[in-house]
Every structure is written in structure tokens, then in C-alpha cells.
Amino acid sequence: LFCHVVVPLIKGKSARESLEEQGLWEEFKLKYPFNPIKFQDPRLYVAGEQMTNDADLAYFGVISIGTPPQSFTVIFDTGSSNLWVPSVYCNSAACENHRRFSPGHSSTFRNAGRSLSIQYGTGSMTGFMGYDTVGVGGISVQNQMFGLSQTEAPFMAHMKADGILGLAYPRLAASQATPVFDNMMNQHLVDQDIFSVYLSKNSAAGSVVTFGGIDPNHYQGSIAWIPLSSELYWQITVDSVTVNGQIVACSGGCQAIVDTGTSNIVGPQGDIDRIAGAVGSYSANGDNVVNCNSVNSMPSIVFNINGQAFTLSGSTYVRQSPYYGCRTGLQRSNSNLWILGDVFIRQYYSIFNRAQNMVGLALAR
Questions:
Q1: What is the disulfide pattern of this chain (predicted)?
Q2: CA–CA separation, 182 vs 170, rounded Å?
Q3: Which one of 139, 218, 337, 352 has the fewest beta carbons within 10 angstroms of its own beta carbon?
Q4: Cα separation of 226 and 253, whole Å?
């Protein structure tokens, strides 16, 4: 049996970084505004799964599908549950510039005979479901149901990854597809029903998803285990958010999901505005902007969760762009659900425990 299945992630250029370089960011932002629609009430969207157009995503891993294997880069996304990649039947611009799966070139492919539709904040992806062997980190997951896109929304042409590999709960999966990690557990490919994510702070290399275990080299101190408040996303209760000892957001508690498929920290508009005010950022061009010279003197943002304080210093929640100066990794949404995305996960090694339905957080190193 395999102890740990380790999938290295590449920290590449995000869509935003590429668009800024080309001078196209302003135009893109107006055309495809960030909309974390992923997190409206999922019961209202029986047809499919919600996803968001996040231009800041930068971590990708490689998987293979089929026999012989066809390789794809995917976002390992704890905020969704389906696996999907572009297919040769797709002629959208987004498929033309990504790798496409060809069922005809795989001897193990079977058509599942059902369609798939995933709604994005600014369009959708439609396609059909198939079964095939999926290679993840050197192990083969048999009979994995996955989506093959036939149409993709225009903004997806700017996505760096070819597709998405969802790691949330089966209840969230569109078209009743069993998620990849559920199949890993069911097929006894991992020795613990647990996976962990380490995201490097700056370097391109070093980020990793570990299926089946925890890598002690990637954290220091003890692991704080937090019970899930709902088993759909990896959802936990946050008690409050404080700056300089004062509660500035999430007063009386709030719900948050730990989401590798979102780059920033996303929260309700009023709360994010109060945090922004408390740390001294101001709004410009839809971003929370700060003076690059004051980053080191900015106060920490503290998430109080299950009796423990999880602290983000100024240098961890501010990112610098060569074109647009410094901005915080805080984004507003019109949902009450908070999203603790990559800004948070870079600081806290995140362990996703399906055996006990808990999230473990430990200081990353």
C-alpha cells in the first residue's frame, strides 16, 4: 500500500500577473468582475456546481487521464468536488489554448451518458461525463468519473490551469460524480483518509499536496484540530476577527471555508471594509491598496478559531505588483460565508481530515 502520495504544485504566474504585464488587466477586470458565486446557496443550483473566476490563482499540479496517460495541469480545489478538463470536442477559445482530452486515444475511457454544467460568475462550462483511469502522484485511480468540457466561458482562456480537481465533499459534486479523493479512499490507495496542503510563500517550487498523510517538514508547533460545522465544503466556525485586540469583523461568530481554489481572503462587504479600515488600506480600482513602504508596520489580522488565534502579519496579507503597487489579499463578496483562501493557507499548513471531519491548521514553515 502507498503511505503518502505526494503531488508537487508549481507556483506559476497568475492570470492577473500575465494580464498586467500585457496591459490588459483593467479591460479584463471590467469584462469579468470577480464574483464568488461559488458560495451562494448550493441547493438553488441543482443542475451544477458553482465556481468563481479567480484571476490570482497561481498553484497548479499535473495529473494524467487515460491509457496511455494524457497529462493536464489542474487546480487542486478544496472548494469544489468535480474533476473536469477540456476535451477535443470543445472549440471555445479557452479550449484552444489548453490541453484537451481525447477519449478516442484512451483504451480505458467509457462514456457515462450524462451531461455536466458548471456555472461561473461570468459564464459557464458545459460538457459530458466519462470514466477513466486518473493518475495522481504516481498512483492510479480506477473508474474515475470526470467532466469533459464542450464549451467554456471566455474568461477561462486566461486561466493558467487546464482544469480543476475538486477535493470537497461528495454532496457538492455535480452529476453525482464520486470525487477523486473519495475514490482514493474507497480503493484503499491511501493509508489515512486525510490529505494536506502546503503552499510556498515566494518560490515557484516546494508547494505540495500530500494524499494519505501529513508532512512534518512543512509545519512547526502543534496542529490545531477544528471540527467542521458542515460537511459540504471544508467549513468551520470562526469566533471573531480582531485587529489590535479589537473585534472588527465576524462579531458573534461566522462561517468560513478553507479553500485552496480561492486565492484571497473573501468576506462580507461590511466586514472586509472594517478590516481594511483597521489596517489602514484604502479602496482604489476595486482593490484594497496600501503604501508599499508601510507594509512592515501594518497591524496583524487575527482569526480566532476554536479558541486559538491564527495571525496574519502585514507581509503575509499584502501582495506587491510591479504595475499596481501593493494591495491586500482581502476581497468583498455579497455572501455571509467567509473564504480562507491561499493567503491564509500559505501561512497555515492545512490538513483535511475525512476520517474525523476536521480541518487541522499548523504554522507553515
A1: 90-95, 250-254, 292-326
A2: 8
A3: 139
A4: 14
